[in-house]
């Protein structure tokens, strides 16, 4: 910026690094002192944060739907839950989820089935199967998605025929778990709708 | 069926005191005030004191707050809350992540009353009154430079303070390294449900969204622009632990189990075949109003008892 002293320019640079979490402890102290003592620095800090926030809100370029099988996310949902999407895919998937209730429902079903499957008791496989199992573990993707979808269908069916409150198997929940869910949901305050996709 | 994962958020993390991270927002100054508080950056020791029916609860914890995220440390365990996620970082870190598509609620329930310049801990501050109609619902002492809420007092409808949160050893704009990267933390992703089981508004609180919850339950998230609560509707057969030391809350509509923490209230009751749990930061008079508009406590019908006896 024109007219800035070298010290001020350095602080500007450090503010940017600060927002990126890239400061050394000494630099952090320098920034803190500047923020505590200089109103211009505070103003610049806020402006930087707002700019970044605005940038994050810019619309993303959507992948043409014809490139998505069936116009929906399909097995990308499984990768999404597994945190295996590449960076460029994330905004595309998130944006599609924003506007597609069908995919949101499918994602919820997938997640339910994963949770239900995880809750099943473990069974030790025979020793002679171990090498094959290790080999299969590395092959994820379509088969996993199909298996999860089947699980999801089963879970969905179970939900469909079991009205809330009539569970055949009494379960237990802790108030701590319920509270943590409330806290997590309550923490999305004021995040504009376009930014409120909080997937891992 | 969703299986509960006890991620055991460290007690104090519940302190989304006075809904400073409340999902809902009124238009205008209150929204701006809350937004600044949420986006503020600081570290501090936070002391919270609350009183419900003469029962006093206190918590003290070290917090780091930055860009809507808050980390709370108790001994070697950290909990991280913000942007729809809650995670506990310990030996086996795990958490829950909410995906929400609901826009903030617009209500005019709260307005900003008087704003007074004051000095606190040698810092320039504003003492802000948050009004609910003619009554002062909250007093918030806001650090002018950072926007952080240094002291937050929440009042009942009779003007008594029932919760007070204060930041001590406050350091604006200073955060330390987090406990660890969040990479590798297993999240349970929670997606909104479409359901008409829960009421769309209760005593001035609006239903924002609904999610599946553990035990086959539904979680309705409600807000009024300042406070929030979640209403969980579970099967009556679901055992809800955590109310072993609960006290009794008696209102005009019935008797409830009450287990408050410094930052939240938890209320449990059953009505017919459904078990309900409320968790939130709402004040006592609001809680009573909310309970009055929900199904009143009642024993299950003979048929329900017979069914449970036969089929569990």
What are the salient characteristics of this protein?
heterodimer, A: 200 residues, mainly alpha, elongated, B: 312 residues, twelve-stranded mixed β-sheet, eight-stranded antiparallel β-sheet, 49% strand
Query: Strand-residue fraction of chain B?
Result: over 45%
For the CA atoms, what is the radius of gyration of chain B? 20 Å
What are the secondary-structure elements of chain A, in order, as H or E? HHHHHHHHEH
Average pLDDT of chain B: 81
Helical stretch tally of chain A: 9
Structure classification of chain A: mainly alpha
The greatest inter-chain interface is formed by: A-B, 61 and 98 residues
- Note the main sheet of chain A: none
Q: CATH superfamily name of the domain at 192-302 in chain B?
A: MucB/RseB, C-terminal domain
Q: Mean pLDDT across all residues of chain A, rounded?
A: 64
Structure description:
The complex is a heterodimer of chains A (200) and B (312). Chain A has 200 residues and is mostly helical. Chain A has helices at 6-20, 25-37, 39-57, 76-82, 89-99, 101-119, 130-137, 142-161, 175-186, and one strand spanning 172-174. Chain A contains 9 helices and 1 strand; from the N terminus they run ααααααααβα. The longest helix of chain A has 20 residues, at 142-161. Chain A is elongated and about 60 Å long. Residues 121-126, 137-170 and 190-200 of chain A have low confidence and may be disordered. Chain B has a domain at 192-302: MucB/RseB, C-terminal domain (Phosphorylase Kinase, domain 1). Chain B is 10% helix and 49% strand. Chain B is built from 3 helices and 21 strands. In chain B, the strands form 2 sheets. Chain B has a 12-stranded mixed sheet, with helices on one face. An 8-stranded antiparallel sheet of chain B has the order 13-14-15-16-21-20-19-18. Chain B starts with 28 loop residues before the first helix and ends with a helix.
């Amino acid at each position: 910026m024109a007219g800035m002293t070298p010290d001020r320019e350095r602080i500007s640079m450090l503010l940017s690094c600060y927002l990126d979490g890239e400061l050394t402890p000494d630099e952090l102290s320098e920034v803190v002192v500047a923020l505590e003592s200089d109103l211009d620095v505070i103003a610049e800090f806020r402006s930087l944060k707002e700019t970044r926030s605005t940038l994050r809100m810019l619309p993303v370029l959507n992948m043409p739907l014809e490139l998505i099988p069936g116009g929906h996310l399909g097995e990308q949902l499984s990768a999404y839950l597994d945190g295996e999407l590449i960076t460029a895919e994330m905004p595309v998937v998130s944006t599609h989820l924003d506007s597609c209730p069908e995919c949101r429902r499918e994602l919820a079903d997938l997640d339910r089935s994963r949770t239900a499957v995880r809750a099943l008791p473990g069974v030790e496989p025979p020793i002679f199967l171990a090498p094959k199992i290790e080999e299969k573990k590395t092959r994820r993707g379509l088969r996993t998605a199909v298996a999860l979808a089947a699980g999801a269908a089963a879970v969905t069916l179970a939900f469909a025929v079991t009205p809330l409150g009539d569970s055949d198997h009494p379960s237990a929940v802790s108030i701590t778990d319920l509270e943590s869910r409330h806290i997590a949901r309550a923490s999305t305050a004021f995040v504009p709708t376009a930014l409120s996709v909080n997937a891992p | 069926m969703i299986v509960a994962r006890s991620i055991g958020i460290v007690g104090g993390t519940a302190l989304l005191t006075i809904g400073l991270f409340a999902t809902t927002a009124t238009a205008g100054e209150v929204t701006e005030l809350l937004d600044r508080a949420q986006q503020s950056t600081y570290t501090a020791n936070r002391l919270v004191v609350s009183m419900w029916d003469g029962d006093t609860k206190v918590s003290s914890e070290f917090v780091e707050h930055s860009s809507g995220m808050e980390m709370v440390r108790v001994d070697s365990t950290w909990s991280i809350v913000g942007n729809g996620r809650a995670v506990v970082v310990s030996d086996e870190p795990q958490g829950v992540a909410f995906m929400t598509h609901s826009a903030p609620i617009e209500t005019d329930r709260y307005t900003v009353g008087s704003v007074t310049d004051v000095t606190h801990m040698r810092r320039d501050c504003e003492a802000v009154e948050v009004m609910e109609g003619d009554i002062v619902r909250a007093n918030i002492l806001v650090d002018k430079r950072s926007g952080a809420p240094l002291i937050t007092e929440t009042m009942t409808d009779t003007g008594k303070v029932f919760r007070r949160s204060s930041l001590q050893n406050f350091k604006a704009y200073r955060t330390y390294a987090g406990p660890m990267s969040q990479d590798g933390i297993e999240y349970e992703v929670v997606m909104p449900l479409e359901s008409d089981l829960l009421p769309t508004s209760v005593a001035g609180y609006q239903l924002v969204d609904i999610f599946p919850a553990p035990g086959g339950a539904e979680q309705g998230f409600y807000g009024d622009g300042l406070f929030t609560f979640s209403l969980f509707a579970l099967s009556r057969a679901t055992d809800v632990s955590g109310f072993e030391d609960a006290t009794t809350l008696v209102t005009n509509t019935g008797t409830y189990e009450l287990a408050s923490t410094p930052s939240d209230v938890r209320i449990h009751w059953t009505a017919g075949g459904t078990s309900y749990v409320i968790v939130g930061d709402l004040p006592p008079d609001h809680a009573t109003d909310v309970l009055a508009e929900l199904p009143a406590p009642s024993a299950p019908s003979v048929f329900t008892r017979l069914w449970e006896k036969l089929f569990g």
